[in-house]
Amino acid sequence: MRLDVVTIFPEYLEPLNVSLVGKARARGQLNVHVHDLRDWTYDRHNTVDDTPYGGGPGMVMKTEPWGTRSTRSWRTATRAAPAGRP
């Protein structure tokens, strides 16, 4: 089974190399590919978020890195929906 994970913190997923998940990867039963979303940005600071339109607290994700990422290599994808169903 192949699992592609897109994140801005790829180092958080390094524990996937140990425990039962690590054993499954070593046997070839699970193939995990971790992708850094910052690799698909175009500014020199690799920015993936921005302030909300109209102001207010917090940050929101930019759409550009996701669009670039999805058009390059996703053939089929399962995405989580807010309702809990893909």
From TrEMBL:
Residues 1-68 form the tRNA methyltransferase TRMD/TRM10-type domain. One of its GO terms (biological process) is tRNA N1-guanine methylation. Residues 65-86 have a biased composition (Low complexity). Gene3D superfamilies: 3.40.1280.10. One of its GO terms (molecular function) is tRNA (guanine(37)-N1)-methyltransferase activity. Residues 45-86 are annotated as: Disordered. GO terms for cellular component: cytosol. It holds the Pfam family tRNA_m1G_MT. This is tRNA methyltransferase TRMD/TRM10-type domain-containing protein. It comes from Streptomyces haneummycinicus. The lineage of its organism: Bacteria, Bacillati, Actinomycetota, Actinomycetes, Kitasatosporales.
